[in-house]
Amino acid sequence: MPMVLNNYAFYKESPAHVGPYRFAVDIATPLPEKKQTIIYAPQSGTVVKSVMGNTQWGNGPEFEGYLNYLTVLTDKENEFYELAHIAPLNGKEFVKGERIEQDMPLGVVGLNGWITMYTPERPASHLHMLVGRIINTPPGFESLKIRWNNYGKTR
């Protein structure tokens, strides 16, 4: 059951949010076919990885390889954010090395990859967000609590 906070709903429980992903959040959104939810850059930085072309999804590990995501190394030393279940906005896909500025549109929430909160009647459309710091021990990063600056700002 989502927790509602300033017009956003956060799914509090996810089997994927353990270990290095423990501070990741899932922000519930309307189904993409009902309403397009635009994702804006939370921080400026540089794209280090982008996968945006997948459209398959379902509830099972066999769909893990179909996840779309965008990973951005921020201007704050060794910190990054990753947005998952993202789809291109107006066909725009990002490439490694591309500069991202805070508040620029990055894409829209899409149904892709392994959706763990799912029923056949209603997939749990959401944006998965992780903020992390690069470290020198496996798995190479640790998740950080998200600092919600300007939280609830409307566009």
Write a brief caption for the model.
This protein has 155 residues and is mainly β. The protein contains no helices and 16 strands.
Features:
globular; 0% helix; disordered C terminus; nine-stranded antiparallel beta sheet; Glucose Permease (Domain IIA); mainly beta; 155 residues; disordered N terminus
Average pLDDT figure: 84
Q: Which secondary-structure class do the elements indicate?
A: mainly beta
Question: Strand content of the residues, in percent?
Answer: 35-45%
Report the order of strands and helices: EEEEEEEEEEEEEEEE
Number of strands: 16
CATH homologous superfamily grouping: Glucose Permease (Domain IIA)
Which class in CATH terms?
Answer: Mainly Beta
Distance between termini? Answer: 26 Å
Per DSSP, the total helix count is 0
What percent of the residues sit in helical stretches (DSSP H or I)?
under 10%
The radius of gyration over CA amounts to 15 Å
| Overall shape | globular
Largest sheet: 9 strands, antiparallel
Low-confidence stretches: 1-6, 151-155
CATH topology: Glucose Permease (Domain IIA)
CATH architecture annotation = Distorted Sandwich
Overview of the structural elements:
It is a single chain. This protein is mainly beta and 155 residues long. The chain has a single domain (2-143), classed as Distorted Sandwich (Glucose Permease (Domain IIA)), CATH 2.70.70.10. It has no helices and 16 strands. A hairpin with a 4-residue loop joins strand 7 and strand 8 (79-84). Residues 1-6 and 151-155 have low confidence and may be disordered.
